[in-house]
Amino acid sequence: MKIEARRLFAHPVLAEGRDDYKTCKFSAEMKPSVDAANNLVFDINLSTDCAEINRLIAGGDAEYLFHAECPTTIYRQVFTRAVGEFVCKIPSDLVKDKIYLAAFIVLRRDKNFFCDDWNDDFDGLSFDLPKGSILAYKNFPPLTLAEDPNLFKNVGSIFSVYRKLDDDSPFEFNATPQKIKIGLNSKDYALYRRYCDNPTLQPILNALIILPVLVALFNDLKQDSQEHESDAWFLSPAAAYRRRKFNFKELLASEDSLALAQSVMGLPLTKALKSFAAAFDDAAETVKQIKNRFFLRQCARKKFNQHAVEILVGGAPLHE
Question: Does residue 85 sit in the same domain as residue 186?
Fold first, then answer.
């Protein structure tokens, strides 16, 4: 949401580029960053030296507002606070390309408002303003977002799955200097090989196999990571987090292993559930179509009325 300087308001508004106020200012600062969980984090600091507006805020009649909007994903969110310093978080998978940001002071309820600092055009006037009226605003420059830094986009470059010779235990892993190797028993490995190249099922397999391995591995690294700091699979997330201004080694020591593993993999459970829903819905639709075709054939053999058939199978004309 961007307020154009040429926009006309029916009442005085405090903002850069407008001359409704003589000396008062609305100060708005915003510092963006990305946390370890891959959320966009905005440190907001809003304030004004307008005594009348500050009295409204102190009395609960007005509030600070931070607005975020992404046209690409149609994401839109409003954050309101009674104090000017606060933090807002936005999951990075909800926004893409660019995000437009703006800060406001708005009324929380209907109010008659006047200010001694208004320019001479408003001398002696007051305004009956409805709830939600904008008292002050500032547009921030659009924030261009980097492409999703999913640390393990190319799973095959970091992990390899092999068939174990010993079937006594179904699951094991070993962190070598080149890759993290995961061993499955012969039956599990056969099923894995059958479906591992299916892009729809890939997120499900990642959540079932790779996520628990990462959690166990990160728990081990909490004790001592020095042995693996030069390994290829360790350098990949370390470099990615360094670009985000985070120290991966410090995160290993301080963050919960499950939370960090999910961040490294880009929320694998969410992706797995979406993939499961897509696969199940496709299968259900296929079964429905097969049943409808079978029903139509049976009706054709018995010479049922076509209109009655359409009603029975959902009201829409069906054709083989």
Answer: no
Amino acid 93: pLDDT: 80
pLDDT digits (tens, 9 = 90+) for 59-100: 999 999 999 999 999 999 999 999 999 999 998 888 888 899
Cα separation values, 300 from 27, 39, 293, 315, 318, Å:
75, 58, 10, 17, 12
Q: What is the largest CA-CA distance in the chain?
A: 90
Task: Tell me how far apart the alpha carbons of residues 267 and 167 are, in angstroms, rounded to a whole number.
Answer: 31
Q: Which helix (H) or strand (E) holds 242?
A: helix 232-243
- Four-CA torsion 54, 58, 59, 64, nearest 10 degrees: 70
Q: State whether 92 and 169 are in the same domain.
A: no
Banded model confidence at residue 288, pLDDT cuts 50, 70, 90: low
The whole-number pLDDT of residue 319 equals 45
Q: Examine residue 205 and state whether it is found in any structural domain, yes or no.
A: yes
Q: Please state whether beta strands 39-48 and 85-91 pair in parallel, antiparallel, or not at all (unpaired).
A: antiparallel
Report CA torsion sign: 245, 250, 251, 255. Answer: negative
Has residue 317 been placed in a domain?
no
Reading the block at residue 8, the tokens are: 């006309």
Residue 217: pLDDT over 80:
yes
Nearest-angstrom CA–CA distance, 162 and 176: 14
Residue 8 within a domain:
no
Residue 9 lies in a domain: no
